[in-house]
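Below is how a single chain appears once it has passed through the pipeline. First comes the sequence as given, then the structure the pipeline wrote out for it. We keep one example in the README because the format questions we get most often are answered faster by looking than by reading.
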Amino acid sequence: MHRQTLHLEQKLTTLGGRVVCKRCQAKSKRTKLQCAAPAFKGKSVCKTHGGRSTGPKTEAGRQRCAEAKTIHGRETREARNERSLGLARIAVLREVGFALGFMQGPRTRGRRPDLMDEAYPELQDFLKKVVKKQEQ
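Resulting structure:
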C-alpha cells in the first residue's frame, strides 16, 4: 500500500492576494484535506475549528477539564498512574534482585520511575538494611 504524505500549507492569501494570513491547520477525517479558511490571529485554527475558544475560565471548569483530560481518548490519568506504579514495582524488584545477587549483568539504563517511593515500601526498607549490612 502506497502511503501519501500530507503537506499542510502555512500561508493563505485573501482579498485578491493583498492580505497574507495563516491558514487553518485542521484537516478533514474523511477526505484528509486541509481547511481552506484563514486562522484567527495568534491561533492555528479558524472559527469553525475552535479558534474562538478561550478554554475554561472558572476554577470549577478548570478542575472538570483536568479530571477529564485524556490522551487520544484511550487513556485516563488513572490508567497512566496505574501503569507508572506497575513500572515502579518492577524497578524495586529488580533492585532487590541485584542487591541479593539473584540478578547479574548490566542494569537498565534511563531514569527511575516516578512512583518508586510508593511501590513496596516494606521491601525497600528491607533492601536498605541489606545494602547497609553489605557495606559493613
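The chain has two domains: 8-50, 77-135.

See the next section for the split statistics.
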